[in-house]
Write a structure and sequence with these properties.
The structure holds two protein chains of two kinds.
Chain A: H1 2-17, H2 19-22, E1 30-32, H3 33-36, H4 40-49, H5 54-70, E2 73-74, H6 87-91, H7 102-117, H8 131-156, H9 187-204, H10 223-237, H11 240-251, E3 279-283, H12 298-301, E4 311-312, H13 314-317, E5 330-331, E6 343-344, E7 360-364, H14 365-377, H15 387-395, H16 408-419, H17 425-432, H18 463-468
Antiparallel strand pairs in A: 2-4, 3-7, 5-6
Helix pairs in contact in A: 4-7, 4-8, 5-7, 5-17, 7-8, 8-9, 9-10, 10-11, 10-14, 11-14, 14-15, 14-16
Chain B: H1 2-19, E1 24-33, E2 44-47, E3 53-55, E4 61-67, E5 71-75, E6 82-85, E7 94-96, E8 106-109, E9 112-115, E10 123-127, H2 128-131, E11 150-153, E12 164-167, E13 180-183, E14 186-187, E15 215-221, H3 224-227, E16 238-243, E17 252-264, H4 275-288, H5 314-318, E18 322-334, E19 338-350, E20 356-370, E21 375-390, H6 401-404, H7 433-439, E22 441-457, E23 463-482, E24 492-515, E25 519-542, E26 560-581, E27 585-596, E28 605-616, H8 621-624, E29 629-643, E30 654-660, E31 663-670, E32 679-692, E33 696-708, E34 711-715, E35 724-728, E36 731-747, E37 751-768, E38 774-778, E39 785-791, E40 798-802, E41 804-807, E42 814-817, E43 823-824, E44 832-834, E45 842-852, E46 855-865, E47 868-870, H9 888-892, E48 924-926, E49 929-940, H10 943-948, E50 953-967, E51 991-1001
Parallel strand pairs in B: 1-7, 13-16
Antiparallel strand pairs in B: 1-4, 2-3, 2-5, 5-6, 8-9, 10-15, 11-12, 13-14, 15-16, 17-18, 17-51, 18-19, 19-20, 20-21, 21-22, 22-23, 23-24, 24-25, 25-26, 26-27, 27-28, 28-29, 29-32, 30-31, 32-33, 33-36, 34-35, 36-37, 37-45, 38-39, 39-40, 40-44, 41-42, 42-43, 45-46, 46-49, 47-48, 49-50, 50-51
Classes of the chains: A mainly alpha, B mainly beta.
């Protein structure tokens, strides 16, 4: 019996001895939150990482959804040239049980940005890290946070120009906390936060800050990108002078120049935007990227021989003059069995096989000219330019004649023609109070036109989110 | 009846002719108790070494035919076996002695064996004999319908596909519900390790690397007491597999071969409609929409002249008769020092869809040796290799024949002008599964090794010290290649390498003692540790040279590499105490303390325990004299088990790397949960075992199992960045009754007829979802949400679908119930309702075997009662779209004119108010079925013939597997649709096989 006791104790002791380490198994191919946010290198990677999901939420979902809703897009009701995708967007069929996923996508990215912002303090004590390095990271994250809040307020609130003090979305400026149940801020409060973030970003980012090592320099956040977004946000707020001022800052920046009529057809499918040209900020597309959408990629959905749901309506197509080089940015299917249906070539793919991928432009120079023209028409003044001069600057590079006079309708038309299928037109219609009027529409008269104002311009918040957070209020009529 | 008699008569004559020259004599006698002299009825008298058996009658008399030099073996419950040589006598009276050593069936249980007499928990065993000849490719499939409360189902009939096993219902929502498998004392890996097959990931268990014929017995531990010693991971039950080992003094060499064919199990002849019916249907749909099918410019052109085309039956064209073959040799032997068993087997199957095949080699060596009087050692080594081609089965891939047949119209040609597979198939994305099968590759090569070695030391008679150490490895090499012939001239290659490995050590000390004759005591203590590692390396190479389709020929710029690695550990200490008194009263207590690396720093450890007792009433003096009662035993148990079956690192808050724009960044991938810990099951079980008249035995069990602290994703506000976090919340209850019965209906010298039956009733109830009203069940294969919901206050799985009313007889519109209960023909206004559940009210199996001399006919049935199934609209229910075929049921029965009471509404092409879209109760049906699982006719050649040929035994047999299934489900090939009762389309459904085999033992 004694032997047994000794043996048993021996076995127990042996196994106990190694037990502490044996059960500690930390992940190897991902890093704990604690470690990541504890040093500059981790924060630097995390700040950059916050950009990545954009390929998914801004790229495919945002642009396509907006165009399908705005009347620029068109989808076949049945048959080969549709796959069942983007029907709900096309007919504006949103309910609390089936709504856009933008809410989750944007708040996730906001959490990623806030996690960096909240942990920067004191990291400049690390060797080789300066206070400016930290400010650059913070500026990037503030830009991302502002872009996300802006997207959210566009999706889930009525336009600022219509109901500035209506229901906005919660401003989230601290890292995620599962026990925090925020109420909705007003739309004005959200815009105030966005402007505050962007102004601070502009102030603290080094003028020449440019992330190194990247393939596409235009797919990173720079000071001009912050300024261009400020121009857009002010425009959407009706802050005309500020919109014009910030547009001017970018227009006067020699790094950017308008694409010529010759260049225009070639710029959309490039792998890298390169120096010069219009692109101020874009999302870089690559098939090996983690947020690549594969078969749901915008390049496949707008490909007539792919899923083909994202077509171009004749309402838009017929607006292009025959000599307008922008008209050539359309194609029909390979053998034209669709009978002349059109699809945009702005996302025709980089030639990387099937399905393909594409860069997605978020901010470019033409938008700045158009922002400024609209602002000037609304009373802003910038010395040395006029609204018509800005519009004609674009037209001169599109193969169409200069306008001799510029009314609101001309400015709106030019904006639609130039920025079609880049995710703008829907918000423009809302800002202008125009509503959606469609003629070339395939889903029945019930869904064809969306008047403004209408409750439909603010999408419903998902029921599950409302269930979890009692402080949230649903938009009316959902 | 006459022909049956005639058949048997001729068989008798035939067999009599064969056996006629045997020098048998008729032996008579009486069997009696050696001490009291009382005669003993129902004792078994057997000619030793043969299958000849007789039973004593009420007077203890028997008659048997035996050779004059034979030995008679007499057995009877409660008595020691007796052997008596005949020595040419015609009257042999035999006395037998009562034994204190009961004639128990040995049961393999956790960390050892026990006897039926001593068991206190809920344990069911099947032995190799009843595993039988069923030519299944995988061990877990053998369990179907054989044990009460063990539910086996598959999402796929593809060779090598995994199986879903549920013991006593589904106890967990997020953590796995698969039982723990322990082979020869070592917990083994059960995940599907194939990467290309598309049938398995996460959907169940596969034991494909183990040859079913190597198995001696399978024991299922169902209740907390039986499983508690496996504490952690035992919540879903434990399946103990024991492989064969050599026996002292017996040596044999066996060769087996079987060949057969397989085909789609489609007993209700469901399929796409034939071309004539389809055209009629489509023309009606066009006319109903106000168009002219004969107008070439009308948008919908379907002229009758299409019938004159070179039409194709795509169902026939995409399916085939599969073939199956299996060869095996094994040998076993032993002497007083050592014994061994070894086998080598090869199995090959071609699928019923093109491009699908499976082959496998397995080899095993089991050896045991008595090194010293106190020291024994042995090893169990199994190696397996499989090579599997998968096509693109099990999903909504155009390359999947099971899906493509519902996309391609019969008007499409099978071959183009050059005789190549036609790939101009616009409705199927220009994809022809036959071309895919010919040119593309979806291949898995899997190498598996399982080995363990034990040393057993008995320093003194009553103490046994044992250490068992195992290693298991699985390496999968997968290759996916898109050839230029099927991809518009481009190529893409993916190659993956996946390794899983497990190291286990298990060490026990046991003390056994019997004191004062009647007190029996066993104490056991042990320790176990387990390490699991996993790594995965994948590469993608676009544009490889088709002449040399390897990464070497692709440009480095486009290549992409993927990598993942993880590990997990478990450390356990356990102890068990058994005490029994006089073979009447048994108690057992178990305790186990487990630490898992999966949980938070302070919550890694879980304590699990059980207590159980049983009472053998038949050993009580006041029942001992009741001769007809062999066994009457009451059992009760209570215990707590754990479940840690979740993905790794869920307790950590994580950042994952992600590549973008040439730089690697980091993104938050998970919220931290430092408190994450074990999911717990509390189970009580009450059972009664009985046996009467030495003929009928069975058991009845009642149980209640509560799952608590469930590992459940709690929804969090998305404004926090994440929509859910895994926490220990919520609870689920499973209650049930199980009945098993087995009996000998006829047992004479030449004829035996046995039958067995089992049935299980399980009821689940979701008691707490921690604030969520419901959860949506995800498909285990794809991760997609299903129309199945888990609802607080209801049973576990419920279909949540649009509420269908039927067809309006006056105008053919489909009608739904609207929210207010009124009827509407607008699908978008239809209300949603909980309609039906895929959980069966009862399920089980029954079997019967009839043997006459060497000839034996066995049949085995499996059934499921009261489960609902939801039929997928992928299968030809599109009544508004003429670009895809419809099925033969829809084409046969749809509304045509006012007054028709049709099942299906009027088809209208291009209608916006489509009837199929979304899931509705229109497609919910009673999924009950009765499956003839296996019918086998076998014949053992008489031994006097085989002996002359130098063989111990020769057996020939023919089997039909799944030959027929009785069911009422319209719109599926086969009603077995996995535990969610729902198929999201493209499944490789069940198959039936017809097989012939030969088995020779030397």
């Amino acid at each position: 019996m004694k032997n047994i006791k000794i043996l048993f104790l021996f076995v127990a002791a042996l196994s106990m001895a190694s037990c502490g380490d044996f059960l500690e198994k930390a992940p190897k191919t991902s890093q704990s939150t604690e470690v990541t946010l504890s040093n500059f290198d981790g924060l630097n990677k995390a700040a950059y990482g916050a950009l990545m999901p954009m390929y998914d939420w801004y790229g495919t979902s945002y642009v396509l959804a907006n165009e399908m809703r705005s009347g620029n897009g068109r989808r076949e009701a049945s048959g080969t040239f549709q796959s069942g995708r983007f029907y709900s967007e096309y007919v504006w069929n949103y309910s609390a049980d089936a709504t856009s996923g933008m809410w989750g996508s944007c708040y996730y990215v906001i959490h990623a940005a806030n996690s960096v912002i909240a942990n920067l303090e004191g990291k400049d004590s690390e060797e080789g890290v300066t206070a400016q390095d930290l400010d650059n990271l913070k500026a990037e994250c503030l830009f991302i946070r502002a872009l996300c809040h802006h997207t959210l307020v566009l999706y889930y609130a009525q336009p600022f120009t219509y109901q500035p003090d209506g229901l906005g979305v919660p401003n989230i400026i601290e890292p995620g906390d599962a026990n925090y149940f925020p109420a909705r801020n007003t739309t004005r409060e959200v815009y105030t936060q966005i402007v505050e973030d962007l102004l601070e970003a502009e102030k603290i980012m080094a003028d020449d800050y440019q992330r190194s090592g990247v393939t596409d320099a235009k797919a990173t956040i720079t000071k001009p990108a912050i300024q261009a977004l400020l121009s857009r946000v002010y425009l959407y707020m009706g802050e005309w002078q500020k919109a014009a001022d910030y547009a001017t800052k970018v227009i006067n920046n020699e790094a950017y120049e308008l694409w010529t009529a010759e260049e225009l057809p070639t710029v959309w499918t490039k792998d890298v935007a390169g120096d010069g040209g219009e692109v101020i900020f874009e999302i870089y597309g690559k098939k090996t990227a983690d947020y690549y959408n594969s078969w749901s990629d915008i390049s496949y959905v707008t490909n007539p021989n792919g899923y083909a749901d994202g077509g171009v309506s004749n309402d838009l197509y017929k607006l292009y003059a025959d000599n307008d080089v922008r008209k050539t940015l359309h194609r029909t299917d390979k053998e034209n069995v669709s009978g002349g249906l059109m699809w945009t070539t702005k996302y025709a793919g980089k030639g990387d096989g099937t399905p393909d991928c594409n860069n997605i432009i978020v901010l470019r120079l033409s938008e700045m000219y158009l922002n400024r023209a609209e602002a000037i028409l609304n009373g802003a003044s910038i010395s040395g330019t006029t609204a018509i001069a800005d519009v004609n600057a674009i037209r001169a590079n599109r193969g169409v004649d200069a306008l001799t006079s510029l009314g609101f309708a001309d400015m709106k038309l030019e904006r639609r023609l130039e920025l079609a299928y880049e995710g703008h037109y829907l918000w423009d219609l809302g800002r202008w109070g125009d509503g959606v009027v469609r003629e070339d529409f395939t889903a029945g008269d019930n869904f064809k036109d969306i008047p403004f104002p209408s409750y439909k311009w603010a999408l419903p918040i998902s029921q599950s989110e409302l269930d979890i957070n009692p402080n949230l209020v649903q938009n009316p009529e959902y | 009846m006459k022909s049956v008699k005639l058949f048997f008569t001729s068989l008798v004559i035939l067999l009599a002719a064969i056996t006629g020259y045997a020098q048998d004599i008729q032996v008579k006698g009486v069997v009696s108790d050696a001490s009291t002299g009382e005669t003993i009825p129902f004792a078994t008298v057997q000619v030793k070494g043969t299958t000849k058996i007789a039973t004593t009658d009420l007077n203890g008399s028997y008659t048997i035919l035996a050779p004059g030099n034979a030995t008679l073996l007499v057995t009877y419950v409660g008595y020691a076996d007796a052997e008596v040589p005949v020595n040419g006598r015609s009257v042999v009276n035999i006395t037998i002695e009562q034994s204190t050593q009961q004639l128990d069936d040995v049961l393999v249980v956790a960390y050892g064996t026990t006897s039926k007499e001593a068991k206190t928990g809920s344990v069911t065993t099947i032995k190799s004999e009843s595993i039988g000849d069923a030519p299944v490719a995988s061990v877990e499939k053998m369990l179907a319908g054989k044990m009460a409360g063990v539910q086996i189902s598959s999402y796929s009939g593809q060779p090598g596909a995994p199986t879903t096993i549920r013991i006593r219902g589904i106890s967990s929502i997020n953590a796995g519900s698969e039982p723990l498998w322990v082979v020869d004392g070592i917990p083994v890996m059960t995940e599907d390790q194939n990467m290309m097959s598309n049938v398995g990931a996460g959907s169940g268990t596969t034991m494909a690397s183990i040859n079913p014929n190597d198995i001696e017995s399978i024991t299922v531990l169902k209740d907390a007491a039986a499983a508690a010693i496996y504490g952690s991971r035992a919540a879903n039950g434990v399946i103990l597999v024991t492989t064969k080992s050599g026996k002292q003094g017996k040596s044999s060499f066996t060769a087996r071969a079987k060949v057969g064919v397989t085909q789609l199990s489609n007993d209700k002849k469901f399929r796409p409609a034939d071309v004539e019916s389809l055209l009629t249907f489509q023309r009606d749909a066009i006319i109903n929409a106000g168009y002219d099918p004969d107008d070439a410019d009308g948008g919908y052109y379907r002229p009758l002249s299409l019938l004159d085309n070179d039409n194709t039956d795509w169902y026939d064209h995409l399916t085939r008769v599969g073939q199956m073959q299996e060869y095996e040799i094994n040998a076993l032997g032993g002497n007083e020092k050592g014994s061994f068993y070894t086998s080598l087997a090869y199995h090959k199957e071609t699928g019923i869809y093109y491009g699908v095949d499976y082959q496998r080699f397995t080899a095993r060596v089991n050896a045991d040796y008595q090194l010293l009087k106190q020291l024994r050692a042995g090893a169990r080594i199994n190696a397996g290799y499989s090579d599997q081609n998968s096509g693109q089965m099990g999903n909504l891939y155009y390359a999947n024949g099971a899906y493509a047949m519902w996309n391609i119209l019969p008007f499409e040609k099978a071959y183009d002008e050059d005789g190549n597979h036609n790939q101009d198939l616009p409705n199927n994305a220009d994809t022809n599964p036959r071309a895919i099968a010919q040119y593309d590759e979806y291949n898995d090569k899997q190498y598996r090794f399982q080995g363990n070695m034990y040393v057993e030391y008995k320093p003194i008679d009553k103490v046994t010290i044992k250490t068992t150490n195992g290693a298991e490895m699985s390496l999968t090499n997968a290759r996916q290649y898109w050839a230029p012939e099927t991809n518009e001239g481009t190529t893409t290659l993916w190659m993956y390498r996946q390794e899983s490995y497990r190291l286990t050590t298990s060490n026990t000390v046991a003390y056994n003692d019997i004191f004062a004759d009647k007190h029996s005591l066993r104490l056991m203590a042990g320790q176990e540790a387990q390490y699991d590692g996993y790594n995965y390396l994948g590469g993608k190479s676009p544009d490889v040279d088709p002449a040399m389709p390897y990464p070497n020929t692709s440009s480095a710029e486009k290549d992409a590499l993927y990598y993942n690695e993880s590990e997990e550990t478990l450390l356990s200490f356990f102890g068990q105490l058994d005490y029994s008194y006089d073979s009447k009263y048994y108690v057992q207590g178990s305790i186990r303390y487990d630490g898992s690396s999966l949980f938070g720093a302070d919550t890694k450890w879980g304590l699990f325990w059980s207590a159980s007792a049983s009472w053998n009433l038949h050993n009580e003096n006041w029942l001992k004299d009741v001769k007809w009662l062999n066994t009457l035993k009451l059992r009760a148990s209570y215990g707590v088990n754990g479940n840690n079956n979740i993905p790794r690192y869920r307790a950590y808050g994580l950042y994952a790397t992600a590549g973008y724009n040439g730089v690697t960044g980091m993104l938050p991938s998970r919220v931290e949960n430092k408190e994450l810990s074990w999911e717990k099951n509390r189970t009580w079980n009450i059972g009664v075992d009985f046996a009467f008249l030495d003929r009928l035995n069975g058991s009845i069990e009642v149980y209640n199992r509560n799952t608590e602290d469930m590992l459940l994703s709690k929804r969090t506000p998305q404004t926090s960045g994440f929509s859910s976090n895994l926490m220990n919340i919520g609870s689920v209850q499973n209650r049930g009754v199980e009945v098993m019965l087995e009996g000998d209906i006829i047992r004479t010298d030449d004829i035996t007829w046995t039958a067995g039956f089992n049935i299980a009733f399980n009821r689940s109830k979701v008691k707490d979802l921690a604030g969520s009203e419901f959860l949506t069940a995800a498909d285990p294969r794809s991760g997609y949400d299903t129309p199945v919901r888990i609802v607080e206050g209801k049973n576990m799985y419920n279909f949540y679908v649009r509420d269908w009313y039927g067809v309006n007889p006056s105008n053919g519109d489909g009608l739904w119930y609207a929210e207010d209960g009124s009827l509407t023909n607008d699908r978008t206004k239809a209300r949603y309702a909980y309609i039906g559940s895929p959980e069966p009210k009862a399920n089980g199996g029954f079997n019967t075997q009839f043997s006459w001399k060497g000839l034996s006919l066995s049949a085995f049935f499996e059934y499921s009662i009261g489960n609902d199934v939801l039929i997928n609209n992928v299968y030809g229910w599109y009544d508004d779209d003429i670009n895809v075929p419809v099925n033969n049921l829809l084409a046969k029965d749809y509304w045509k004119k006012p007054g028709d009471t049709a099942t299906n509404p009027k088809p209208v092409v291009g209608s916006s108010s489509v009837y199929y879209a979304g899931y509705s109760s229109r497609f919910i049906q009673d999924g009950s079925y009765l499956r003839i699982k296996d019918v086998t006719l076998s014949y053992n050649l008489p031994q006097n013939i085989t002996k002359k040929a130098g063989m111990k035994n020769v057996k020939v047999y023919v089997s039909a597997i799944n030959p027929y299934t009785f069911h009422d489900v319209d719109g599926v090939f086969d009603p077995e649709l996995g535990s969610l009762g729902y198929d999201y389309g493209g499944a490789y459904s069940m198959v039936k096989s017809f097989i012939g085999g030969l088995e020779i033992t030397f």
